[in-house]
Structures are given as structure tokens and as C-alpha cells.
Amino acid sequence: MEEKKILKNKMPDVSEFKEEILKKYPVKVAKKRAKAIVLNDPDAVPEIQANVRTVPGIITQRGCTYAGCKGVILGPTRDVINITHGPIGCGFYSWLTRRNQTETKNDDEANFMTYCFSTDMQDSNVVFGGEQKLAQAIREAYEMFKPHSISVFSTCPIGLIGDDVHAVSRDMKKELGINVFGFSCEGYRGVSQSAGHHIANNKIFTDVIGIDQEQKRVGKHQVNLMGEYNIGGDSFVIENYFKEMGIDLLATFSGNSTIESYESAQNADVNMVMCHRSINYIAEMMEKKYGIPWFKINFIGANATAKSLRKLAEYFDDKELIEATEKLIKREMAQVKEVYDRIRPKVEGKRAMMFVGGSRAHHYQELFNELGIETLSAGYEFGHRDDYEGRRVIPSIKIDADTRNIEDITVSKSDEEFKPQLQMRKEELVAKGFSFENYEGMMPEMKKNALVIDDISHWETEKLIEMLKPDLFCAGIKEKYVVQKMGVPMKQLHSYDYGGPYAGFEGAINFALEMERMLTTNIWKMIDAPWKNEPSIMGSMVYQ
Ligand code: CFM
Question: How far is CA 481 from CA 1, 474, 475, 486, 490, in A?
């Protein structure tokens, strides 16, 4: 293995990397990419370009709008039949690929997550329209399964030929007597899957949340957990903590969830937001309409978990709850400490890079910090500027044509359902320094001169590894094997590589054990990338 250029505990000089990368691009592309690659300064957070279209031809990590709507937001909800209106490939490739787990409460409860429903559009449907086929598919699904509700997802051709999924859904709702709702989430509609999150949030808010208007009080402290998707069982861990503390979880958007639970989610006393990128819209709209305050939490990392649970207890200001929370934290932290004390000396000083989605590239830095692993470079696939720089920049974000492409719904206060007492509680707590509706973003928590890259390309990934030689790289399946062939251990932070849960104290222990396995093995030093020994064909292109 080549000598590392990097000195321990000192950030490497990464400016060289930026130059090297940009040299390869045509002038216009280089100019655009330059704005998405920045050197961090936590004290004066620089502006980063984010949520803009990828230059065609660049191999991006991003997914499409349909993926964000169907796969991410609605995918983990078990009592709804999600029908993909489009060619079979879109349905097939979004089928069970995200490792979100679910658990029915009893054997009679429905779970449709293992199924893949599609209208299987053919050429003739594209030419003559597919609305009838869609109506038939909804009817058939209802007859076979009698689900609680049915939702319809538009793929690219649907928008191109103009099938009206909303009209079909309305008709079928009338015909079948269950809730049927459609999404205009064609893959091309936005810059990335992030647009799909927004579209899903809007529809869930208008067509699902609050349709059960009965006021419900099942316990003293009612909450919703938002932006937690139960990958690898993360939600199960958090749910157990709530149970032990005496917190009643009304709904999780959307890990281990049901549409039925969303229908009365307006009964919550507070909304906690885990993944800000994917769900902040619903949190905001629920506050406007119902007066339910929201705050950001994070259950990745033992310290972050303790901080989040304490924040929740502080919100309710209930002595019994605070005691139960402290007892839980004390017990769990003792176990975490035991594992950390053993593992930390083995992995301390290692350097990681992570390029994931719209929140994990930030959240996982907490876990790495606890283990003494440094983050050399990080970035999101589809985060917005607020996820990098903090929500304070939202008013200065330019609204472009791609954003206008997503329906912006107007939400107003509900006179009957608004809860002024929750807003009063919020004001009292704000006066004491409690922070609501805020997200500080990733960059203020990263080191000075760490390299922050938005929508990293495959070319940049390879160059980054070659030049900075990290000890660990975290991303998804599209990067995994290329990175491993370069002799660098690679951890998938989307699917967790069949591992997890990584949330909570239990998750922190699992993650530490995984890091011990990955970072102390010698296997990576024994392999050489195939192209080091075999001749490869090189090509070049002249750009004019
Ligand atoms: Fe939120 Fe997610 Fe993420 Fe995301 Fe995702 Fe995911 Fe992700 Mo993959 S909702 S932004 S669209 S935390 S599927 S559970 S791991 S890219 S960082």
C-alpha cells in the first residue's frame, strides 16, 4: 500500500483535490461543479450549491422523484396498496430494495409491503392512454385484498401522455368507498428524489392527516416521530425507549407505520423530526394548521440519542417522565461506554468519508465522533442548502423552475382544531432557550477545511479516494464495489449492508462493533485493484 500523505489529526490539504477534479471537466461544467465543492469553515459557513440539476452525462448517486415519493415516504407504510402506474421496471426496481422493516400488531393486520403492484403499461397504453387500465388495477387490487387505502404513483410516461391519476383516484374512491389518492411524482419532475418527498408530504397532508376528526387522548404525552424509516429496525429501538419512558407514539412518518395512524396524527402534542430533508414540510404544515410545535432530534449516536430523549422529556416537563428518561439513559450509557472503551483505542484517528442522501451524511458523523473517527469529507446526494448551512439560509434560497414544478399548497390555521395551548407552551420554552423549528445543518458541525461536496459524481469519488486515501468510505450500493476494489472498506449507510439497527444506544453499540470489524481487518491490504495488474484501455475526448 502506498504511504499516506495525511498526517494524523491534521486535515489534509484538499484544495489540490478541487483543482484536479475541475481540470477534467469542460469549462461550463467545471464552473458549475466548483460551486458544489467547498472547503468548510464552521465559524463562517460558506455557501454551497445544492438541489440543482445534475449535468447530463455525469454519473450521479441520485435517484428520481418517483423513488422519493413511492419508495422513501410511502414505501414503509404497510396497510396501503401502493400501485405504480407505469412500465413494470419502475415498480420492480422499487420493490423491497430499501430494507425498511415493519411489524404488524397481530396476525389479522394487513401488510402489503412485500408485494409489488404495477399497471404494467404497454406501448398501446402509452399511445391510447392508461387511465382505464389504472382504474381496473385499483379495482382488482381492492377485490383481492380489501386494503385500508390505495395510492397511485406516476412514473415518467404518465406525465408525458397526460393520464390524470387524480381524477381516476377520485372516481375509484367514490366507487370503492375507501381512500384512494394519487401522486404526480413522475421521475423527471424534480432534480432528485427530494422533489418526491415534497410531493408525498403534500398529499399525505391534504388527503390523509386529520381525516379522522375524533379527538383522541390515549395517554399523557402524545407524539409523532417524523423522518424515521425503520431501515434495519431503527424505529423498533426508538419505539422501545418511548414505551419505557411512558410516551405514546401516535404515528411514525413512515417507518413501521400505517395510513390509519396518520389519519389521527393531529392529536399529537409535539412532532419530532429526525430526517429534516424528507419530512420538514409535514411538520411545518401541521404546525400551521393545528398549532403542533416541532423540533429536530437525532437518534444516531449515543450522545445524540441521550440529548434527543432529554429534549423530549424537557418539552413535557413532567417529573416522572424526566426520571424515567434519566434512568434509561444511565443504564444504556453504561453499556455503550463499556463497548466504546474497548473499541475506541482500535479505531481512533481513522478517517472516513460519507456521501449519503439528505441527512445521514450528517447524522453518522455523530457516531464517528464518538469513536474518534474523523470525517475528512462528506456530502449529500440531494440535500438542500438548509441541510448543509442550516435553516437560517432558507429565505435566501433562490426559487428556480424545478422547485416551481412542485405544487406549493397553502395551509391555513384550522379554527376548530388549532391548539393554542401548545403554542403557549412553545413560547414559554423558547423563553428558556429551547429551540423549535430549527435545524443547524451539517457544515457548522464539521471541521475547518473538511471537504463538503454536493451530488458527488463517480469520477469525483474515485479521485477523492485516490488522492486522500480514507480508511473508510460510506455511501450506497452504486459505489460499494468500485470502492472496495480500490482497497478501501465500504459501509453502506442506506441499507446498512444487512446490518443494524444503528439507532439509539443499542444501535451505537452495533455500529461500534461493525467499525471494529471493518477497520481492523487486514483483508483490504491484501487485495489490489484489478486494473493495477491488468492492462486497461484508455480513451480521451476532445471538447470544443
Ligand atoms: Fe432521509 Fe432516509 Fe436520508 Fe432520505 Fe434516502 Fe434512506 Fe438516505 Mo437512502 S429519507 S434523506 S431519500 S434519512 S433512502 S431512509 S438512506 S438516501 S440519507
Answer: 19, 12, 11, 9, 8
**Nearest protein Cα to ligand 1, atom 6:** 494
Q: Closest ligand 1 atom, CA of 68?
A: 11
Is 197 annotated as catalytic? yes
**Which residues are CB-neighbours of 236 under 8 A, at least 6 positions away?**
101, 103, 230, 256, 501
Query: What residues does 153 pair with on adjacent strands?
Result: 84, 183
| Residue 229 alpha carbon, nearest atom of ligand 1 | 14
Interhelix angle 27-34/15-23, rounded to 10 degrees, is 150
Query: Is the CB–ligand 1 distance for residue 231 below 6 Å?
Result: yes
Q: Taking the CA of residue 145 as centre, how many other CA atoms within 13 Å lie in the half-sphere pointing to its CB?
A: 24
Give the H/E segment covering residue 453: strand 451-453
98 annotated active-site: yes
Could you tell me if the CB of 357 is within 6 A of ligand 1? yes
- Tell me if 223 sits within 8 A of 312, measured CB to CB: yes
The Å distance, Cα 359 to ligand 1 centre, comes to 7
The residue whose C-alpha atom lies closest to atom 8 belonging to ligand 1 is 494
Any ligand 1 atom below 6 A from CB of 356: yes
Nearest to 422 by CA among 293, 316, 311, 247: 293
For the chain, counts of helices (H) and of strands (E): 23, 14
Number of the ligand 1 atom closest to the C-alpha atom of 277:
10
Amino acid 265 reads A
Task: Name the phi and psi angles at 240, rounded to 5.
Answer: -65, -40
CATH 3.40.50.1980 domain extents, the chain: 65-189, 222-348+385-431
Regarding the beta carbon of 229 and ligand 1, being less than 6 Å apart is answered: yes
DSSP assignment of 405-424:
TS--------TTT--HHHHH
Q: Tell me the pairing of strands 490-492 and 149-154.
A: unpaired
Decide: pTM greater than 0.85: yes
Over the stretch 373-420, which tens digit does the pLDDT of each residue have? 999 999 999 999 999 999 999 999 999 999 999 988 999 999 999 999
Report how far ligand 1's centroid is from the alpha carbon of 357 (Å). Answer: 5
Per residue in 269-315, pLDDT (tens digit) is 999 999 999 999 999 999 999 999 999 999 999 999 999 999 999 99
Q: Can you list the positions of beta strands (E) in 255-384?
A: 270-273, 294-296, 351-355, 374-379
> What is residue 10's predicted lDDT score, i.e. its pLDDT?
60
- CATH superfamily for domain 222-348+385-431: Nitrogenase molybdenum iron protein domain (3.40.50.1980)
Measured CA to CA, the distance from residue 195 to residue 394 in angstroms comes to: 16
The Å distance, Cα 127 to ligand 1 centre, comes to 35
CATH superfamily of 65-189: Nitrogenase molybdenum iron protein domain (3.40.50.1980)
Tell me, using a 6 A CB cutoff, whether residue 278 lines ligand 1. yes
* Cβ atoms of 33 and 451 closer than 8 Å: no
The three-state secondary structure class of 231 is strand
